[in-house]
Amino acid sequence: MDYEVRGSPRLLSVNGRYVLRLGSNGRVKTSDHLAYGWASDKYYYESQGSRQVLNSSGSTDETMIWGEKFGRQYGAYQCFFVGTKQEYAAQMARNPCP
């Protein structure tokens, strides 16, 4: 996610939660500022009206959120990978998060 991008839409908030619609490149750009502080993030995958919780803790076969990073290296950003541990390792070998 790239934050503070001029001309980009604000993040959609539904019932106090952000809803991200990822493009085929897996990126989201928003004009919102990156929020800092404590949070309890929950991740879901939704397709055709069905919603599935994505495990973001630990390092098990059920974990689907990997390598979460925040920073301001090239502008404000948040980066994480959605997929299996093997898919994450392969992606990081090709194109690591900043």
Could you say how many structural domains there are in total? 1
The termini sit apart by 12 Å
The class by helix and strand makeup works out as mainly beta
Q: Please give the count of helices.
A: 1
N to C succession of SSEs? EEEEEEH
- The unreliable regions are none
What is the count of β-strands? 6
**Biggest sheet architecture:** 2 strands, antiparallel
Estimate the global geometry from the Cα principal axes: globular
Oligomer: single chain
Strand order of the largest sheet: 1-2
Percentage of residues in helical conformation: 10-25%
Strand content: 25-35%
Arithmetic mean of pLDDT: 85
- Report Rg: 14 Å
Written account of the structure:
The chain is mainly beta and 98 residues long. It has one domain (12-94). The protein is built from 1 helix and 6 strands; from the N terminus they run ββββββα. The strands form 3 sheets. A two-stranded antiparallel ribbon has the order 1-2. A two-stranded antiparallel ribbon has the order 3-4. The chain starts with 11 loop residues before the first strand and ends with a helix.
